Amino acid sequence: MLTEFDVIERFFTRSHLTRHTPGITLGVGDDCALLNPALGYQLAISTDMLVAGRHFFADTDPRGLGHKALAVNLSDLAAMGATPRAFTLALALPEAHAQWLAPFSEGLFALADEYDCALIGGDTTAGPLNLCLTVFGEVKHGRALTRAAACVGDDIWVSGRLGDARLALGVLRQEWALASDDWPAVQRALEWPQPRIQLGQALTDLAHAALDLSDGLAGDLMHLVKRSKVNAVVEVEQLPRSAILKKQPLAIQQHCTLSGGDDYELCFTAPPNARAAITALEKNLGLPLTRIGTITPFDPSQAPIIWRTANHAPLLTPLRGFDHFAPHAP
Predict the structure, then answer these.
(1) Integer Cα distance of 293 and 278 in angstroms
(2) How far apart are CA 156 and CA 267, in angstroms?
(3) Are 163 and 268 in contact (CB under 8 A)?
(4) Which InterPro entries does the protein's record reference (predicted)?
(5) Tens of pLDDT along 8-66?
(6) Residues 6 or more apart from 320 whose CB is under 8 A from it?
(7) Is 76 marked as binding a ligand?
(8) Ligand-binding site membership of 154 (annotated)
(9) Which of 32, 164, 207, 278 has a CA 20 to 30 Å removed from the CA of 271?
(10) How far from chain centre, in Å, is Cα 160?
């Protein structure tokens, strides 16, 4: 069995890389890390916790889990238009085994290296499997995208495609079936989400408001309209879906795209005169960007979000996002 300091030294100490990361004076190995934000920039900080049995199955591939643990945090930086700089890791393990820690750290650091994001500290302890990461990024002063800046008349956009991660979760829960040839693609959507860092950085010049879709479009977009004190209309048929999800009954498609979580795409609002620039950005990034609705004036007599179907009738099915305190497993 490995000791706490064996775990840190063998799998999570990379001080030789930290010294060459911009803005980091001191990383792993002391009581605190030391960061120096660049002149004219603000620190963007976010924390996410992944708990076995709540956010992932305990037998999830550790390499993919290492990737996802960091990816979901980097997605928050992407939503603000920030550049990743560093992260901390607090890790509780039922047992410290190299067979699990080696692939976990490999998945974690492969993504960290992709974005030059250095591990600068954290904590390890025995306990139920629990991963808690805090990320630090930089964004030009006053340029961060927030949830509170949507303007009446803005288009609502989403990146990528929605619903495949929830489709995969439904298969694992035996809620529905999927052809074996389709499973690898939706499994990857669930276990290997891609943070949209480059998109977020580009949107600081184009978008008004943004957030990442971690708990489902219905729940997350509600946060944006409430913070911005506006209403919204969403065209349900415009929601981008994969060919795999389109094979499913319409009710499953709508559930996965509207209420399913774990997409980690960006939802953002931008003025209509930005459409050409956003289309060009879509081509430059090779990432689908889909206009799905409009920001409308606040009207307390109306639903905050009207989900409109192809015949312009409102969707009557109650919608909600993922609730971390709801009594269900991952």
Answers:
(1) 15
(2) 7
(3) no
(4) PurM-like_C_dom, PurM-like_C_sf, PurM-like_N, PurM-like_N_sf, ThiL-like
(5) 666 566 654 554 566 776 666 677 788 888 889 999 999 999 988 778 887 889 999 99
(6) 216, 218, 219, 259
(7) yes
(8) no
(9) 164
(10) 12
> Is 322 among the annotated ligand-binding positions?
yes
Condensed to tens digits (0 to 9), the pLDDT of residues 204-235 reads 999 999 999 999 999 999 999 999 999 999 99
Does 147 belong to an annotated binding site? Answer: yes
47 is in an annotated binding site: yes
Among candidates 236, 265, 268, 235, which has minimal Cα distance to 150?
Answer: 268
Could you name the CATH architecture of 4-140? 2-Layer Sandwich (3.30)
Query: How do beta strands 266-270 and 155-159 pair?
Result: antiparallel
- Three-class SS state of 139: strand
- Taking domain 155-308, whether its CATH number is 3.90.650.10 is answered by yes
308 is in an annotated binding site: no
The one-letter code for the residue type at 112 is: A
Helix, strand or coil, per DSSP, at residue 216: coil
Tokens at 19, concatenated: 């010294």
Amino acid residing at 113? D
Nearest Cα residue to 259 out of 159, 189, 163, 158:
163
Q: What crossing angle do the helices spanning 62-80 and 183-191 adopt, rounded to 10°?
A: 60
Domain ranges for the chain, please list them.
Answer: 4-140, 155-308
User: What 3-state class would DSSP assign to 206?
Assistant: coil
Is 323 annotated to bind a ligand? Reply is: no
Task: Report mean pLDDT in 10-residue bins for the chain, 330 residues.
Answer: 62 55 70 84 93 82 95 97 95 88 94 93 89 95 95 98 96 93 96 97 97 94 97 96 96 92 96 98 98 97 90 61 52
What is the Cα–Cα distance from 317 to 57, expressed in whole angstroms? 29
